[in-house]
Amino acid sequence: MLDRLQHSDLPFLVIGRAGMDLYPDPPGTKTEDAVQFTAALGGSSANIAVALARFGERATLVTSVSDDAVGRYVVNQLNAYNVDASRVRHIKSDVRTSLAVVETRVDDHQSVIYRNNAADFQMGLEDVESLPYSRFRALVITGTCLTLQPSRDAALRALELARRAGIPCIMDLDYRPYSWESDGAAKRVYEQALALLDMIVGNDDEFGHMAGNYDAGQAYASHLAHQGKWIIYKRGEFGSRTFTPSGEQIDTGVFKVEPLKPTGAGDSFLGGLLASLSRGNPLKDALLHGSACAAMVVTRVACAPAMPDSTELKQFIDQMDTPNQVSGV
Prior knowledge:
Elements: H1 2-6, E1 12-15, E2 19-24, E3 37-42, H2 44-54, E4 59-66, H3 69-80, E5 88-91, E6 98-102, E7 111-114, H4 125-128, E8 138-142, H5 151-165, E9 169-172, H6 183-194, E10 199-203, H7 204-211, H8 217-226, E11 230-234, E12 240-243, E13 249-252, H9 265-278, H10 283-297, H11 310-319
Parallel strand pairs: 1-4, 1-8, 2-6, 4-5, 8-9, 9-10, 10-11
Antiparallel strand pairs: 2-3, 6-7, 11-12, 12-13
Helix pairs in contact: 2-9, 7-8, 9-10
């Protein structure tokens, strides 16, 4: 899988949510006290695509947006970040593009996400079955694609077709319990997706949910690696632990920063990791670069606009103490 990521100039294919984020301004303001807001592109998949594009990688986003001013805002922003939005479908109905009101504060942080009748959940089989998968380097999705139909079947179908085309399939579990009809339903659908994946990224709670026991998440992650998958197990302030199919383990620490907000770190981490692998870096270095990207984003306002580029990443790493890495490949 790493060879395909490292020795190719093909674009990444990213599937999932894109939306508008509103931030109370100035930073630190509570939503209920705000009198003005700033807007930015948001949504986990859109953020990952932007993170890749900021490093000069080509990324195509597949999603659906409402056929209105907010949907057009999202597409305009994707184009401004050099993300290929030609596969974004505008839907003429009463669906609405996802909207999030997100505070730039750590203490008592509030994020209010409006996802009722969300346009991206209307992504269907017609959006994924015509894609030329062999012309992409890898497929990247997030767990939010699996929450509702028809997006659920479309995402699973995309994974099937990507595997048939021989390209790596990568997913950030991004499990949000409030979005699902039940924990059991989520587990069943995630298991279908896991069988089709090459690389899985998630945190303690997400792997614990899949294990059926929140204390067994790490053991479950290791088990998946023994089945031939690359697993990145995120541990918050303790960094990440990566399990490789060969049985090797990499522990990557975090860069110590003073955060403005807690959001966007996971999207930046994955985008930075994949972009670093694309440049031919060893996995242990790519993980460190992903950790640095995550640290940078939480010190900046918004998510998509906060994604660093290569110059900013190098400057940050040169100026910071490097976290410990226990082992590497």
